[in-house]
Amino acid sequence: MKIKLYIFFIFIFIGSAVFAQSRIKISGKVIDADNQGLELVSVRIGGTTQGTLTDLKGEYELTVASQDSIEIIFSCLGYRTEKRVLATPQGNVVLNMRLYTKDKKLGEVVVTEIRKQTSTLQKIDAKDLRLMPDASGGSIESMLSTLAGVNSSNELSSQYSVRGGNFDENIVYVNGIEIYRPLLVRSGQQEGLSFINPNMVGSIGFSSGGYSAEYGDKMSSVLDITYKQPEAFEGAVSASFLGASAMIGHSTKNFSQLHGFRYKTNSTLLSSLDTKGEYDPSFFDYQTYLTYKFSPNWNISLLGNISNNIYNFTPQERTTKYGTYTSASQFKVYFDGQEKDKFQTFFGALSLNYGVSKYTALSLLASAFATNEIVTYDITGEYWLDELDMANNGGVPQTSGTLGYGTYHEHARNRLNASVFAIAAKGATRFGKNELKYGVNFQREIIKDRVREWELRDSAGYSLPHTGNGIDLVSSLSSYQNMQSNRFSFYAQDTYKLRAKSGFYTFTGGIRGSYWGFNKEFILSPRASVGYIPNFNDRLTFRFATGLYYQTPFYKELRDTVRTGENYVVRLNRSIKSQRSVHFVLGSDYSFRAVNRPFKFTAELYYKKLDNLIPYEIDNVRIWYSGRNESKGYAAGLDLKLFGQFVPGTDSWLSFSLMRTQETIGGVRVPRPTEQRYSVALFFQDYVPRFPKYKFSLRAIWADGLPVGAPRLGRQAGYFRTTPYRRVDIGASRLLVGGEDRLMKRGFFRYFKSIWIGLDVFNLLDISNVNSYYWVTDIYNHQSAVPNYLTMRQFNLRLSMEF
Description:
Elements (H helix, E strand, L loop, with lengths): L1 H21 E9 L10 E4 L5 E3 L5 E7 L3 E7 L6 E6 L4 E3 L2 E2 L23 E3 L15 H5 L5 E2 L9 E2 L7 E5 L2 E2 L9 H4 L9 E7 L13 E7 L6 E7 L2 E9 L3 E10 L2 H4 L4 E19 L4 E26 L4 E28 L4 E30 L8 E34 L2 E26 L2 E3 L10 E26 L2 E14 L4 E14 L5 E12 L7 E6 L2 E6 L6 E16 L2 E17 L2 E4 L2 E4 L5 E17 L2 E16 L2 E4 L6 E11 L2 E13 L3 E3 L9 E3 L3 E14 L15 E9 L7 E8 L5 E7 L4 E9 L1
Parallel strand pairs: 1-7, 1-8, 12-15, 26-31
Antiparallel strand pairs: 1-4, 2-3, 2-5, 5-6, 9-14, 10-11, 12-13, 14-15, 16-17, 16-47, 17-18, 18-19, 19-20, 20-21, 21-22, 22-23, 23-24, 24-25, 24-26, 26-27, 27-28, 28-29, 29-32, 30-31, 32-33, 33-36, 34-35, 36-37, 37-38, 37-39, 39-40, 40-43, 41-42, 43-44, 44-47, 45-46
């Protein structure tokens, strides 16, 4: 019996040994050139779907079946893909790997993987901006408008709305400093240049909701821009019918500098508007980014900006045809007068950075923003509103009757000076599997507002509104306000990354608090998110985020316009409260390969509960707030995006969004002014296969029309929707010199990396998109909405050089 028992244990031992030899455990660590562990590196077995991801320390572990040889593939976005072959491996194998960043060269770079996103902040590649056709002159915001959940229905403006929010609900950071924009801008053609210089951008992060506590108090989105630090001498120069730009950078051992100049004039683009006249816009800005390293642990940086935007306009006449075939009208105006606007902004930020250790970094930041804005105009118009006969035998519509005629006089003398001073301390510490971020900020605001604008209307010889007692103004607004206030805010958040048997988890939780001295309000915003990459399929990523988001009012929101007859006087509402939004965001990514190219499909479902809202109306890009917390509502929708290389070596994407946002004002539920129920956007890049020097870019948007109500009545008194916004811009470019061309090594051309020439066609389909309306009032106080059309088809020739 004992002999049988011994034999049994011998068989058990032999079987276990055989089984152990049939399975191989492979583990190790992946590091970068600085010996730092790399997380989320894909480690997979060649020829199979088996693989894993490295953890926060760069460590990995996987078990595979025994084979004669096993190929291990290490890949990570931004690093070279490395392969190792294990010949007849046995037992436990330790395989460490070092990954190096991809070499910078002009030749084509093929991306084999797409970055995994475990938070709501997505990373955007700035290189896609280079050849993108853009009527605003090349801006980050123009590319954002093609992303899911982001909408823009005005190609003359750099403003955008995100998931039902307005322009003021988006927060923008450059190098960790919040950026402000002018407050008195009334139309897209007045805006000029966006603050962000695309030639200086190093990295782009964007979140359309559910963002972490380190970002400030806004209700819709975050755009986080970091300017690059040049590694050597570099530069770029470009010119087109829309303006010109230049960037130059240089770096030494301890000092780096980056300078950007931009000039824009869109007079040729504005010539396609219905209102004809002398357009004389002139927009210029200069930016600099300087960094000096005292030692490996200490450095100081300076970011500066000077912007001067001037818009002069002398209108002459306008002819607008609108309506349907059975009910068409024509609005004809002859003008006298002019408009002169000036928006000057100055910005400076100084940052002192100290690397305590490789796990802790501290920063002290001081910034100042100042804006000087002047809007003046005196414009008189004499108009005719006629009915058109579209069935004329000659094919040319003829007037068949006059619906109304009259004159109007618009007057404004508005001036605003605003200054914002801020000082902040920030830090980040990594310990174990945690990454802690924290910071405090103090901000002081000084605002001086002087507004005097009015409009006089006369219809068929009767002053409007017609009372029979004298001449009255149809509208009048005056403001004489001086305001000073202080804000204090703080935040703390922790990110914990966990590798478990079920997959890779990322937990982020934080809290943000702020106090505003103007209304003595203290708010507290808890925020949390979780990301998950399952082991059963590392091509899937899931994430969920929620939080309480407040929007503390800036100057425009608290301007309570008190009505006295037809006149309005601005008073500051000291009892105003912060608007509030509760975010729920559930998203998922699926990365896959098709035709041997990488793709990623993204879906996000969201709901935002809105309280303490300050109702507003939008006229072009100017937002009129009621100045009181008097509504509540919600926003809900679904965003879908397919991103990948539809053409090898080029990134393209297709976005689709469904959204509903409504609010209740005075017991009446109405859509919010930014409700675009659907939106489809496409950004596509291509090249000619046999002639790779020829590149093609397409940007297309098809979005639902926005709800519009009559002025001074609001949407609760009735509304209609504008026509859908449909626009296609294309650009064709040709590489004149670059790459391996022989000319690159000769004479003048040896100083350049590339020279491109391109032709853009804006609004290829020549569609008359509507941006806003001019309202004509008759003596019976009936109002007719005359559409203000945007730009028509235009051509733009551009030349760009890099050195």
